[in-house]
Amino acid sequence: MTPTSAASRRRTPGSRSGSRARRGHEGGRGPRLLQGDCVEVLAGLRAGSVDAVVCDPPYGIGWQNEHWDGGAIREAAARVGRERLTPNESFEVWCEMWGRECARVMRPGAHLLAFGAARTFHRLACGLEDAGLEVRDTLMWLYGTGMSKSRRYPDGRATTLKPAFEPIVLARRPLEGTTEENLAAHGTGALETEACRTEGRHPADVIASHEPGCGEGGCAPGCAVALLDAEADRGRAASGPRIAPSRFLYCPKPSRAEREAGCEALPEQVLDLFPNAGPRPDGRTHNPHPTLKPLELMRWLVRLACPPGGLVLDPFCGSGTTGAAAAIEGRRFCGIELEDAYMEIARARIAHWATSRAAAEAKAARRPLGRRR
């Protein structure tokens, strides 16, 4: 199955046909998966019930000309009377639509973390502000595995740079009273920074990823983490101890084992992230989600935004990485996803990590965050 097939349309915003919010799994304090268009499903959730929103929505950049990242967003904006807009304007309107529903179901002072693209995240931030949320910060996730999508032009020219970071907008529902009063009344309003320290230091708003080839013996060429430390080594003063820049949180990109954990019984499908790059080795996988985020990164974000035992909402559940992170970190989870195939994958992955909590925590303890591998 190719990335343009039904299973690879990661999320189709604003689609109304067949989006009846069918419940995929619910039971006690276990994960709850709901199927349907996120704006419609969110409208049926109880107000003031969510402790944090952690999500990776479509970026509005027309990724590989997929309808869910372009046309569907414009259609959603048109349905609320916002026609004849540019693609970026439509994206901002759509972000306000789902952001407003998120703000309604969030507790006062609850935080929202949403990934974006470098050229459209300003529209994401404005849409969330228009939805009634306060933008508090922008985190930067650095990595070295991006690839320029530009064609080659004469004399070595191109129209794009190699992507090496993704912004993460940090927003908050307005407080009721002071921070102290809001914490006492709702348990939200402040970030869980103590649980997210890196080498004992207050967490920063920069996150870096290792290259896939990094290991215990050292980093692969071009690794963002190693480059940060190398630059500091080159410019450090002769006296005084050096504080490595890689004290920022960093984590590896998802390995094949991480991608497929829990999905071994599901059928293999084709994953081709660069269909225009010519023939490539077989890319068959049990989890063909095209924009998978590292589990360690999502665990850190869940710990940062959601109080222990709280409820995490992901309106764009995809293959369930946020849900898996919530299960490992002892948070409750509610995810919304449109596609049948990803519902099945998310259910399998979350169940796997929920039963592997002790092993996952032991593995994390063996490699302290912020220590170069």
Strand % is 15-25%
Query: Helices and strands: which structural class?
Result: alpha/beta
Order of helices and strands: EEHEHHEHEEHEHEHEEHEHEHH
Q: What is the CATH architecture descriptor?
A: 3-Layer(aba) Sandwich
Radius of gyration computed on alpha carbons: 20 Å
Total of helices: 11
CATH level 4 superfamily: Vaccinia Virus protein VP39
Mean pLDDT: 80
Low-pLDDT stretches: 1-27, 366-373
Number of domains: 1
* Spatial order of strands in the largest sheet: 1-2-12-11-3-4-6-5-7-8
Brief descriptors of the model:
Rossmann fold, globular, disordered C terminus, disordered N terminus, single chain, alpha/beta, ten-stranded mixed sheet, 31% helix, 373 residues, two-stranded antiparallel ribbon, 12 strands, 11 helices
